[in-house]
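FORM 7B: Structural annotation worksheet

SECTION A. Query
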Amino acid sequence: MSNRNIMMSALNKTVLPKLKEMGFEGKHPNFRRRTEDCVELITFQTNKWGGSFLIEVSAVFPGSENDNLANNCKNLPYEELDASAAKKRYRLDGMFESPWFYYCDIYKYTIEQKMFFGLFTKKTKPMYDYILEKDADNFVPPEGWELVQKFDENCAMELCKEIGLQFEKAFEWLENFKKSHK
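SECTION B. Predicted structure
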């Protein structure tokens, strides 16, 4: 089974059923929930090169003067709205100092930064690089690179747990955002 299929299977077992229980409609990658005065939106955006996705949450208020819709989305029907249609939206934190949730192998390495503020200073900064599934078999990590995520089914389930925890914060943001638009 491919990494993408492993990740989708984990999302379908854990995260997506909870969204449906909460009243969200749609299918991956876009979910919507209508309330009395707004449409709440959740979008899973896949990286065009694969291996990762990010998640955004927002709400739009059709018919309202402050509808939170991007200008090019004002006439879209409800069924076509996704979080990218909103001007203001909340993005889950992702991982490895990035907004992306990775379903591939991740390596960490450090780089040296040189800064000049009257004095010469050096500091090291951790960097992360993802290795797509198609490249993983032939990848030989350079010296100093450390494998920090080996993607498999267990990793996918851990990612889903993290997404679930971050959704709590996202829904808190969503409630506050909706209150500020009343």
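SECTION C. Observations
The longest helix spans residues 153-180. The first strand starts at residue 25 and ends at 27.

SECTION D. Sign-off
Analyst initials: ____
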